[in-house]
Amino acid sequence: MDSPRHLLAELARRHAFADLGALAPKVMPEAVLIPALCEFGQRLLTLDAEDFAAEVDAGIVPAPLRRRARDCHMPQTAREQPRGALASLRPAYGLLLEVIKVRWERRELSSLMAAVHIAGEYLPLLAFEPVLGHAGDPARWPEGLRAEGSRFGAIGDRECDHTKPEKSAAERTLRVAHEPPAGWRAYFDRQHSQLAGALATCVARCRNPCTAMDWVPVESREDLVARCKTARAFADTPLVRLRHAAPVGHGFGVPSPEEVQDAWARSRAQLARTVPGQAALTGDAFPLQGLPALFSAVAAAPIVPATLLADVAAHLVKLIEAP
């Protein structure tokens, strides 16, 4: 018969961090680190990017794991260092892929769809990263966004193709770095994903171009346009729309694995209309075949599933099985 410790180790391997954190103290009262480590793992699994770098983890979570989590952390002030996901979104997208894989294996499809939705919202920033040199840090926007003749962030300008929420986000992002921490956090809670869409519109969909994107090097523009078109196309695929179609996302039901795979198959065909989007047709061992290759094509850099959750689980197993 399996021992209680063996069952705890199996919970860790299944990334059941919340259950393990609740049950471990009943079986191993001496293992005081396990609940805190489980809380750390659960934050990663639920993509709670505000708290990836919580100071409470110091001395409890191994430093290499903390550093990798901090790479995916969203800074909570305009001056916080290091800049984490505002320096580069590539580690965060690696974590997103790992979360999608784990959620698929656990058949937690509602949470999987939430991760896919997040990936779609911020994908244009992943596309812009090679030309920006960062991942959309409001403290480091190029001065060209404010160039003479730019309509970027011009509230009420009817010539601008941005939606009202995108215009509001664009206007806010140009000044939010000078706001207090509460304003900074509110912007990221409510508007930064709109800003990602606004940037993609500027280069890929605008019918009345202004000077806002003139700072982009001429030799980079064609490639950036193609990758932004693919990012915008992903947000409009059957897979992403599956989360918005009632009753999904409203508490009445979740898609079946077959529905997810069918939506992704139709999405891959739709994405393949652009050159970067053809990467989605890649055959691999990922649950949603071709998704890592698609993210890599949009990023113009390799994006592979992280092993952060797996390494947290392995560390927990080591603690549980220690003599």
Topology:
Blueprint: H1 4-13, H2 17-27, H3 33-45, H4 63-70, H5 90-105, H6 109-132, H7 164-173, H8 181-190, H9 192-204, H10 218-235, H11 238-244, H12 257-271, H13 291-299, H14 308-321
Largest sheet: none
Which descriptor suits the 3D outline?
globular
Oligomer: single chain
Radius of gyration: 21 Å
Provide a count of the helices: 14
Key phrases:
323 residues; mainly alpha; globular
Characterization of this structure:
The protein is built from 14 helices and no strands. It has 323 residues and is an all-alpha fold. Among the domains are: 4-91 and 308-321, no CATH class; 143-214, no CATH class. Helix 1 packs antiparallel against helix 14, helix 6 (109-132) packs antiparallel against helix 10 (218-235) and helix 9 (192-204) crosses helix 10. The chain is globular. Mean pLDDT is 93; it is low at 246-250.
What's the gist of this structure?
The protein is an all-alpha fold.
